[in-house]
Amino acid sequence: MNEVKALGTFYFSQMLGKPIYDSKHRQIGRIKDMAVRWDGLYPQVVGIKYAKKVHTLIPIEQVQDCSEKGMQLSGPFAAENCVPLHDEDIYISKWLLDKQIIDLRGSRMVRANDITLSWLTQDDHMRMLLVAVDIGLRGIFRRLGLEFLVKNHAHNLLGVQYIKPLESWTSSLQITREKKQLSELHPADIADLLEEMDYKSRVSFIENLDAQQAIDALTEVDLETQVEIFEQMDAQKASDLLEEMPPDEAADILGELSVEKSEGLLQLMEAEDAAEVRELMQYEDGTAGALMTTEFIAFSAKITAEQAINQLRELAPSAETIYYLFVVDEAEHLQGVLSLRELIIAHPQTMLETIMHTKVETVRDDDTHRRVAEVINKYSLIAVPVVDEDNVILGIVTVDDVLDILIPERGNRETYPWFAMSKMVGRGR
Amino acid sequence: MTWLKNTRNRTRLFFAIMGPGVITAFADNDAGGIATYASAGAHYGYAMLFTLFVSSICLAIAQEISARTGAVTGRGLSDLIRELFGVKWTLFAMTVLLIANVGTTASEFSGIATSFEIFGISKYLSVPVAAALVWWLVLKANYERIEKVFLLLCVTFLSYIISGIIIDPPWEEVLKASVTPQFAPNASFLMLAVGVIGTTITPWGQFYIQSAVSDKGITAKDYKYTFWDVMVGAFFTWLIAFFIIVATASTLYVNGISIDTVGDAAIALQPLAGKYASMLFSFGLLGASMLAAFILPLSTAYAVCEAFGFEHGISKSYEEAPVFFGLYTALIVIGAGLVLWPDLSLYRIMLASQVVNGVLLPPILIFMVLIASNKNVMGSYANSPRFNLIAWIFTFVLIVLTLMLLVSTIAPETWSCMMAYLGL
């Protein structure tokens, strides 16, 4: 029978430094640290480090009891019974205590103030599990020996299933688990986390994301952080990501890098993607041309609604928006527009030229972003096409690109804003 | 619009050369710095130049350690202290930082008050208005642009260099004094010496440069540029401080004028600006004080919250980050409140806060050196044993100086007995 009986929970901080006695009542050392292995649902304590500079551990099987007074071993202590640290084992205090971790439940960075261990028996085996991390005020006060001051304060514990340490776990099982949990986060939340991390953690964090998620998250990150990340990434990986990002974002990032670096990355990118980005990079900041994306959907006027829907299936995945479908002639002159709704409800054999609207609100590529916003606002558009002086369509500006400019996310700089003249200070060499 | 693009490129080039090290150098010469250097020049002539010289070298060493740690780890100092030393030591370090920064914030508000008093505006009007303005601008508005205005105002302190050259002091004597150890075994000399060290190398400056370096994404491989940036910065700190002491020494000390308010330090600018000296001085003082008043409370709140894992960031709401906003507001209120205390001399507040900074510096230095010599954290960028020796000697000297200051202030009689015994 698989009977599990909980014997108690205690805090890691309260065990640290407590004496260890063996069956002959000799004090053989103090609890210096505990090693855990995470191959099941919860990380399990496998051994106790009992003295400084000693690298073998007392196996957890020898522990008979654990209380505030100290730890009691079941038999007499002998150094040769101790076990070395296994490759997949990690010291709790080195790996978790006082470290910054990601709270996957709230998608934010928190600090591990204390650790909750649970002491239980299963089929007469003693087991000690790491069940939660204390991220609240009580944890801090407990460490200072002042917990009584905040007795009325609620505990703020985070279950171990919701944590992601910045230093990744080595066991392959946990890597899979982490990947699965990360895939459930929203790209915008991942972006916020990336902005807060130091540069070393970012690298390993991005590697943990799958390719599409990495691209989505990087698109959401603020420009300063994007630039930092791409500057530090190796060129091959950076160019691969840039190819997949929306060209307007890629152009913004490359525009902030040094000429050498951005030229190098453009060379590595596929010619077609690179050409698109280069074109966007030529526009002055704050103009419609700089804001627009070239990933819009355009059809010829001479096809039927049915043909258009078939083409749409192929084009849709890479387009920024599919709600507005533009109609152009062979030389890309903008002739009309129709909405997705109009396309779907139209009779399959109708020619597009009969259902499209020929009066299209457009902006010019050198219009200011203010004008773009005015047009979008006045006509309640989701996106507005950008055309040149010959009415050739160049791209579209979507409403969220305009919102970004009108309502910048305040205080993106989560870390020190000292002399926040710009993060570019002291870097762009 | 090409002219616009060109100017933008040029300013970018300028800021590319001027990195965190140089900016810290300007920030180091804040209201308290001016007060301390001016007082050193006015009371002891050129005698304090040697202390300044040594503390500038130590500034370069300390800033180098912090900048290197920031570049290698990508993390702030309070973050590393927490991870490597645990909660108790973090509480200690943060208490030290809080006390030092409350003092420095008060000294910045004294600077603001002084610069307005030169124009006859009472501190009871200027300080509350400035405090409210700082609080509001940082939390509710975009203060980055305004910050540049204040940074520009700071440049007026370069006028001390011109003034010093116009005065044309006996250069031979001045240079000799800079490298000759001079020491007077009394409490006021000691206090000023600790003050000079405390204003040159500040606890907050160490936290600042490390965060600035890591926030700007400077990595270990870019560090060679930052190294020179730090060295140039330390040189500038020394240069401006040197000329303030020279200018005040050759105008005030030589003529036996004692200095009662910081405003008196403006006299040293008269050779350059004539009757406009006070005005020039007050602009510079206002710029430096406002600049530091903006960043000090905010940076302190960031450091403390980062260390303890409280939610922080100006983009958060009060409900999300109560500790952060509480600390930030408390620092401004206490800092400004101290200045409004009746019968308290603004000049004394500025000097005292620099001495407090000097006394509280050694603990922070010990943390810094321990972290920078930790091979697990720093890898191949860890301090070499020889470099560590220099760093420890400096920390030790500063501790001894602090202890001497404490003894000579608390028990002056015991002190004079000790000095007599040593034959000084």
Runs of chain B in which pLDDT lies below 50 for 5 or more consecutive residues are 1-10
Radius of gyration of chain A: 30 Å
Radius of gyration of chain B: 21 Å
Distance between the termini of chain A: 67 Å
Largest chain-chain contact?
Answer: A-B, 43 and 53 residues
Q: DSSP strand (E) fraction of chain B?
A: under 5%
Principal-axes geometry of chain A comes out as elongated
The percent range for helix content of chain B is over 70%
Main β-sheet description of chain A = 5 strands, antiparallel
Helix/strand order of chain B, N-terminal first:
HHHHHHHHHHHHHHHHHHH
Which parts of chain A are unreliable, with pLDDT below 50 for 5 consecutive residues or more?
Answer: 411-429
Number of domains of chain A: 3
Structural class by helix and strand composition of chain A = alpha+beta
Structural class of chain B: mainly alpha
The portion of residues assigned to helices of chain A is 25-40%
Percentage of β-strand residues of chain A: 15-25%
Number of helical stretches of at least 4 residues of chain A:
18
